[in-house]
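Submission sheet (multi-component)
Chains listed below:
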Amino acid sequence: GAGVSQSPSNKVTEKGKDVELRCDPISGHTALYWYRQSLGQGLEFLIYFQGNSAPDKSGLPSDRFSAERTGGSVSTLTIQRTQQEDSAVYLCASSLVSSTDTQYFGPGTRLTVL
Amino acid sequence: EDQVTQSPEALRLQEGESSSLNCSYTVSGLRGLFWYRQDPGKGPEFLFTLYSAGEEKEKERLKATLTKKESFLHITAPKPEDSATYLCAVQGVYNFNKFYFGSGTKLNVKP
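Outcome: structure written.
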């Protein structure tokens, strides 16, 4: 079966522009996570969705970051007014029911802000 | 604050040379400790979950162990295809929707 997919795989943008990153979880998975991985750093938790709701938004670095999930499936991470420090790989993961289940990761979106 | 530290940052081994990777953690009540493998340009791939001190899990040449303060990933007689970055993460019982990752150990196995 298909795994977690993310698009685009690479995104280059200019400072100050908005970007949208997309995640398609494994079909039937109700839990979805977004992480950020900066060069040489570990994964930084951003947000967790259970269905369409996000009980934990504590990891979003600033109010320029937002995320939504529709239909219990596709999720979009939006970064407004991008800054150079936003450059990183953004990873999405999904798990079957909840945070107690194994997470399966997508390949990531590499964001470069010039 | 919950925290994970992995060492060494990088490890070079000859094929067949066994070694161990370390993951030290501080968490207010451990629900689970996770090991992942990450290849360049790919997302992390799940390896093991450990829940309590003394627990061990094995998969091929890999064996993960857990104590109250750290976990080890033992690699026995590694092969070049084991070359990857190995990530450790913890999940606490008081906020189990959040996972704390270490920065990883980059393993390079030379033939």
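Remark: The interface with chain A takes residues 4, 6, 31, 36, 41-46, 49, 87, 89, 91, 95-104 of chain B (CB under 8 Å).
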